[in-house]
Every structure is written in C-alpha cells, then in structure tokens.
Specification:
The chain is 16% helix and 23% strand. By secondary structure, the protein is of the alpha+beta class. The chain has 2 domains: 311 residues, no CATH class; 109 residues. The strands form 8 sheets. A 7-stranded antiparallel sheet has the order 16-15-19-11-12-18-17, with no helix packed on it. The protein has a 5-stranded parallel sheet with strand order 7-4-10-20-23, with helices on both faces. The protein is flat and about 85 Å long.
Length: 483
C-alpha cells in the first residue's frame, strides 16, 4: 500500500489532494519515466521551469564533496535520483560523489525529457523519447533492460487530437468550453439600404482598458463569418444588433476595416437591406461556439456533406476528426497488440512491443499516462479573441467556460479521450471505440495496475514557477506509483 497523490475536482482543478492508494505500483530501480512537453507556442513560457523541475540540480547549494549540500526542493532529481543509487546517495549521510553509483547516471537514463512542436499527446506514446529529436521503440528499451513500470507525463496546452490545425479535422473551430460572446459598438455616419455604410471609430475596451480601433476586419484569405471554409481557423457567429434591440444575422456579409488595403475607412456592406440612419448605434456581436455546439449551428447547409445530421455535436463527435481517429486507433493497437476499430496491429509496434522482452524475457511493465493540460490565459491575462480567427482582432474572453472551468480542448481530452463520452464511445451504435476509456482492458496482458488520467489546470500556461511545476509533476508521478 503506497502513499500517493490524486487530483479531485471537488477540491479544485489541479489542486493536489493526498490519499492512501492500496493498488499502486512501487517505484523501483527498473522504473522508467518519460516527460513530453508541448513547445508549439502557447506554453513556451513554462518549458524552462518544467525542464528544470524535472532535471534541475540535486543540490540547491553546497555539494557532496564538501558534505554541505542542501537538497533542492524544486527538482524531482533530488528525490528520484536516490531511488537509483546502488552505492550510497549523493546527499547526506553518504555524500557519494560517484555518479555511477549515487543514482545520477541511472536517473539520466531512466528519466527522459522531450519537447514536441505539437499537441497530439495521443500520438506521443507510440515510442519512447530519449530526447526531443531522439527516440527508441519500447521493444528496444526492453531488449536488454528489466522494466517494471513506465510513466508517461504529457504537459500540453490546447490538447488537440490531430497532427496540425486542419479545417477538415475541425478541432480548432472553438477554444471555448461553452458558447461565449462579446459585443462592440459604433455609430452610423452615412449609408442606406444594404450599404456600404460608413461608421465612426470602431472601438472597445478590453480587460486591460486599452482602446482598440481594429475590432472587425475583413479576413484577407476570403473567409467569411458563419460559413465553413478550408481557410478557416475557428468558426464564430457574427451578428449586428441595432439600438432598438433588433438582431441582424449577417450571413456572408463582408466586414471591412482600415487595415484592408484599398477599402474605404470603416465601411460595411450588408447582404440585405438594413436601412440604418445616421446616428444609429450598431452593436457587433461575436459569438464563439462551445464544445457541444451542433453541426447545424455551425453550417446547416453543409452538415449532410460532413457525414451526419445537423443535430450532431461538432466538436464532441470524432466523425469530424479523421486525424484524431487515426491517432487513437494507432495508440489502441499499440497498447493492446490487437486489431482495433478494424485496423490491424503490426508485430513489435508501440508499447505492446515491450512484452516479454528483457534479460529474462518477462517484461510486462505497468503503464501510467498522465496528461496535464496547463489551461489558457490567452496571453497577458486577457483571454482569447472571441472571433477565434487570429487575423481578426477584437474583444477577448477566457475560453475556460465549460464545466469545471474547462476549455473545449480540455473537454475533448477529459470527456472524449479519457471517459469515452458521447460519440467517442458511450453513445455509439456500432462496436467502435474512439476513446481510451478501457485503458486497463487494453493492457490486460501485463497483469498490472495501469492508469490513464488527465489533470486540467486553469490558466497556467504562463506560470513560470519552477516550484509549482515540480509539485504538479511529482503529483502526476505518484498517481499510480509510490515513492
């Protein structure tokens, strides 16, 4: 029975809560840990503290040679290195300076780190990263080594299921857990009918009280609001609300701004007659979709061509994510060594490739996979653009509007991948499973206690505290192992 940490939502997301675990695995000298950090951009600020928390110095001051070393409290090395020592530890009371026997060399070979320029954590476990640009198969690791436990800790942001941001994969159609909108207003100067209308200065006040004149602009790639397009990044609803409260749905209306070359200042041409008068105040409402927005909400006209009906949820249905389906199918095969969702397993591939390897041909290690999603603050604690599109500046809002302050991406990982809700597994009428909710069943061959879990943090992708990240990583390591 080990003393381990878990994360319970009732105490607040990402807050370590300690409890006694009677089925965990013991961390021993044959335990391997692999940390993979997302370096795609949105959490670059925390890569250094994460790396230092994992592999920082053993001592915060002093040394073993001087027998005055003070163990670091912000580096995992100061705790885990001792577990690999064979001839006395580096710290007190042994003061062993020999890296080959004090655990330092073994720690470096057993605890590895990689930085990956993507967020597809389901894909990361297909092999063992030794460093960012170096990896080996799991079978190769087990070839001459006894392996009793494997821990994969993936620290990510915007935990998306595809290799890249692809419109046909639908993943970045929203960052928002639930539908979120923001309003900006300006006054009609002149115009009639459908326009063009000229408006006064378009401005709004964001959370930092900075007046921004470039609220709404035409997307130069040709993307128009409310219409699915191959050039789109996120989709959103854009409507106009008059000072009398009437709402005008803009459809494919072209929105202009002074940033567009050759276009008159602050002009808008509508695709219907609106008959605004000079002095009318028009409010532009930008609404970003939520995790459970339906296809019909996004694009009713093409929902059938997407493979389903307009009532199906878009972000929460893997039918819209071909790259994700490929990734999760692969990981399921790699874990189980069996055909999954009609796709056959290739001998030797993935984690199953480690089975019965090693000096005694008996490697069947436990597997723990912990996904830590840092959560978005959008930069400068302003949130993300409600428009979603990176070329449309405008009002911001925090995207952690889902249950438990989750973003849409966090909901995808927790609800879809980990729990198998909705069309990932629970609501399917066929036998396919596009989740990992049967993680222990997939690993039944190892006869061990295995764990897949996600820790959803709130707006921590700019938190540069090494101590904070050391605590998060330590808690992750102890969810299914004790030390």
């Amino acid at each position: 029975m080990g003393f381990t940490t878990g994360l319970t939502n009732s105490l607040g997301i990402g807050v370590p809560h300690y409890y006694i675990d009677d089925h965990g695995n013991e961390w021993d000298a044959n335990t391997y840990a692999m940390f993979v950090f997302d370096s795609s951009g949105s959490m670059n600020d925390i890569i250094t503290p994460l790396t230092n928390a994992m592999s920082g110095a053993y001592f915060s001051s002093g040394s073993a040679a001087g027998q005055d070393g003070v163990k670091s409290t912000t580096s995992l090395r100061a705790e885990l290195q001792d577990l690999y020592a064979t001839g006395g530890i580096e710290g007190a009371p042994d003061w062993n300076t020999n890296a080959a026997t004090n655990g330092a060399t073994q720690y470096n070979s057993h605890v590895t780190f990689a930085s990956q320029n993507d967020e597809n954590w389901v894909w990361w476990g297909r092999h063992r990263y030794i460093a960012s640009n170096s990896w080996q198969t799991w079978g190769s690791l087990g070839g001459s080594n006894e392996v009793s436990n494997v821990v994969m800790v993936h620290v990510i942001n915007e935990s998306k299921p595809a290799h890249g941001v692809e419109n046909n994969d639908g993943y970045h159609w929203t960052q928002y857990g639930s539908e979120t909108y923001k309003d900006v207003s300006h006054t009609v100067v002149s115009g009639s009918g459908a326009g063009p209308y000229t408006f006064d200065s378009i401005s709004y006040t964001d959370s930092t009280n900075v007046i921004r004149p470039d609220v709404i602009q035409k997307v130069t790639s040709g993307v128009v609001p409310n219409v699915k397009s191959n050039a789109a990044y996120d989709q959103y609803v854009l409507s106009a609300v008059t000072d009398e409260g009437a709402t005008i749905n803009l459809g494919s209306t072209t929105i202009y701004n002074t940033t567009v070359s050759g276009v008159s200042t602050k002009q808008v041409t509508f695709d219907q007659s609106v008959n605004f008068n000079a002095g009318d105040v028009v409010t532009w409402r930008l609404k970003s979709y939520g995790y459970y927005t339906t296809r019909g909400d996004i694009d009713a006209g093409t929902s059938a061509s997407l493979g389903g009906n307009a009532n199906e949820f878009y972000t929460s249905d893997p039918i819209n994510f071909p790259d994700y389906r490929n990734s999760v199918d692969l990981f399921r095969r790699h874990l189980s060594g069996q055909t999954q969702n009609g796709q056959s397993y290739t001998a030797g591939d993935g984690f199953y490739g480690i089975k019965d390897t090693g000096p005694n041909n008996d490697n069947r290690p436990s597997l723990t996979v912990v996904v830590i999603d840092a959560g978005l603050n959008g930069g400068n604690s302003q949130g993300n653009y409600v428009s979603g599109h990176t070329t449309i500046t405008g009002p911001r809002a925090f995207s952690d509007t889902g249950p438990g302050n989750m973003t849409a991406q966090q909901m995808h990982t927790q609800y879809g991948v980990v729990e198998g809700r909705d069309m990932f597994h629970a609501d399917r009428s066929d036998t396919k499973n596009y989740s990992l909710n049967d993680f222990n069943d997939l690993l039944a061959w190892n006869g061990k206690s295995n764990l897949l879990t996600a820790t959803m943090l709130n707006r921590q992708n700019k938190n540069t505290s090494q101590s904070y990240w050391k605590d998060q990583l330590r808690a992750a390591l102890q969810l299914n192992l004790s030390f």
